[in-house]
Amino acid sequence: MWKPLMSLADLFYPRLCLGCSRNLHRHENHLCWQCLHRLPRTRYHQQVDNPLERLFWGRTQVKAATSFLFFTKNGITQHLLHQLKYSGQQEVGMRLGELVGRELQNEARFSSADALIPVPLHPKKLQMRGYNQSALLAYGMSRAMHIPVAEKWLLRQSFTESQTRKGRYERWENVSEAFVCAQGSSLMNKTILLVDDVLTTGATLEACARPLQQAGASVLIATLACSLR
Ligand SMILES: [Zn+2]
Fold first, then answer.
1. Which of 97, 129, 136, 211 has the fewest CB atoms within 10 Å distance of its CB?
2. What is the Å distance from ligand 1's center to 32 Cα?
3. pLDDT 10s digits, 166-216
4. Is residue 98 part of a domain?
5. What is the whole-number distance in angstroms between the Cα of residue 139 and the centre of ligand 1?
6. Do 32 and 93 share a structural domain?
7. CATH of the domain at 116
8. What value does the mean pLDDT take over residues 115-124?
């Protein structure tokens, strides 16, 4: 059987699969082909009125919404999210974003966006983590979709406490006033694709959508993972 030659760099710095930690072949990029194949894809972008879109009904008018992967506890999605948030390797986020972008570029509802905007992290959190994981996803998506990232058009104005132990109403109250459009951003009649890592209640994305819509933009949503089925 033909085996690809390892590069010198692979010999000294073995590249490992983000999903299963096995050594990657030369043509594999962050994920081995088995892991790539077994990703729990939602394919919601191919489905009008999918569960994500229904989540926003009566809350905010979203033109289309999707998540790339289903979240399952202790599954590969959780593992990838952990790598995205805590590995400190920015290429991980770019690579995952690229995978999302490749699927969305073939869907007219998403590929017609004028700009990608990642959900902004509060500056304090940005300082702690060193990077905004949603921005990395957006830049990776941009690479695949050839749509620019307009990171500076949406700002986070107040520090919100960790959201993990709060109920839906409290979360909404906590983030509902957190985002504003930057002065001078040209959002009138633009279609904005909002990007985040995980969708749970949708409160953060709803809070981001509102100021964009008030500035005259239509909003699409894409996240790396979601727990809705
Ligand atoms: Zn693997």
1. 129
2. 4
3. 565 555 456 777 899 998 888 999 999 999 999 999 999 999 999 999 999
4. yes
5. 23
6. no
7. 3.40.50.2020
8. 92
Q: What is the DSSP string of the chain?
A: ---PPPPHHHHHS--B-TTT-PBPPTT-BSB-HHHHHT--B--GGGSTT-HHHHHHTTT---SEEEEEEE--TTSHHHHHHHHHHHS--HHHHHHHHHHHHHHHTT-HHHHT-SEEEEPPPPHHHHHHHSS-HHHHHHHHHHHHH---B-GGGEEE-S-----TT--HHHHHHHHTTSEEEPTT---TT-EEEEEEEEESSSHHHHHHHHHHHHTT-EEEEEEEEE---
Q: State in Å: Cα 165 to ligand 1 middle.
A: 32
Cα(197) to ligand 1 centroid in Å equals: 21
Q: Report the separation in Å between the CA atom of 37 and the middle of ligand 1, taken as the mean of its atom positions.
A: 9
Expressed in angstroms and rounded, the spacing between residue 19 Cα and the centre of ligand 1 is 5
Domain total of the chain: 2
| pLDDT surpassing 80 at residue 99 | yes
- pTM of the shown model: 0.87
